Amino acid sequence: ASRPRVLSGIQPTAGSFHLGNYLGAVRQWVALQETHDAFYMVVDLHAITVPQDPAALRANTRLAVAQLLAAGLDPDRCTLFVQSHVPEHAQLGWVMNCLTGFGEASRMTQFKDKSSKQGSDRTTVGLFTYPVLQVADILLYQANQVPVGEDQRQHIELTRDLAERFNSRLGETFTLPEPYILKETGKIYDLQDPSVKMSKSASTPKGLVNLLDDPKVTAKKVRSAVTDTDTVIRFDPVDKPGVSNLLSISSTLTGKPVAELEKEYEGKMYGALKTDLAEQMVEFVTPFRSRTQGYLDDPETLDSILAKGAEKARAVAAETLAQAYDRIGF
Ligand code: ADP
Ligand code: NA
């Protein structure tokens, strides 16, 4: 039997991935390449929903690819590509725009958040319809599952709605995808404000852990994470969001269940947990940074990986688009 298919993407805009990107999404991508027919892409079309400097965009796209390889993606086990290399994304994106209600798009909470921070004159129509392009991204590959963080759940629901709408109006064409979101790491919180998710756009510099930062800086951020005035190390996201966030992160990095960590830290102070987690982070990011640099230092290999990835992706995307165009009457 053929493997179920997964598709996911990450923006190249921030340069370094942050800990939320890694634990919420990329870590699952690496695991799923072993069991699924996996398609992963750097979404540069999504990046231009806000202004980009061309040289920086080009460099950050390669940097994102290097980080995905450093995280463990293997181009022999998955299809790794850059979104703009596959023109079918924009083509099906237009089709999906024409199926989406204006009110329906207006209900996307991530757009409301982002645009309210930017003001309406700086907000582009592209940012408004970016969830619809994402629908096309997913449907082109007939993905069964989409490994993402919790913040993407509403966009996966939109994907299912539009796939159903197209299928029922024009004939069975698209697979309805499910979100693949892990309970433990679906939402990693800001280290300084554990009431908000860690995010490249919303976090304070001290609350955002960038994987490519100097490990000393990262260790310091972890040691100065905001907790609470209690002293007990217990997993309780409602009353102890800061401590619970640190426990989730440590559990994932060490592979120890949260309950085991709670036992280990019985009678110990927050400082013990923070010191250990700072060390675990340093152990993780140090080789990650050098592997990333290694891929950047070998541009020919990177180019050839991306050329092969685009070719494999395009074969699938072109077939789906041709079917969709046929159903539409093109
Ligand atoms: P950001 O949300 O920082 O702008 P992206 O939009 O590029 O980053 O997100 C890439 C992936 O990382 C998505 O699957 C998203 O759901 C996931 N992600 C982002 N932030 C977090 C977080 N704080 N916790 C868990 N997953 C996250
Ligand atoms: Na996001």
UniProtKB/TrEMBL annotation:
Enzyme nomenclature, EC number: 6.1.1.2
Listed GO biological process terms: tryptophanyl-tRNA aminoacylation
Main subcellular location: cytoplasm
Enzyme class: ligase
Keywords carried by this UniProt record: Aminoacyl-tRNA synthetase, ATP-binding, Cytoplasm, Ligase, Nucleotide-binding, Protein biosynthesis
Residues that coordinate or bind L-tryptophan: 137
Pfam families given in the database record: tRNA-synt_1b
Residues that coordinate or bind ATP: 11-13, 20-21, 149-151, 188, 197-201
PROSITE patterns linked: AA_TRNA_LIGASE_I
Signal peptide residues on this chain, from the entry's feature table: none
Coiled-coil ranges from the UniProt annotation: none
Protein name in UniProt: Tryptophan--tRNA ligase
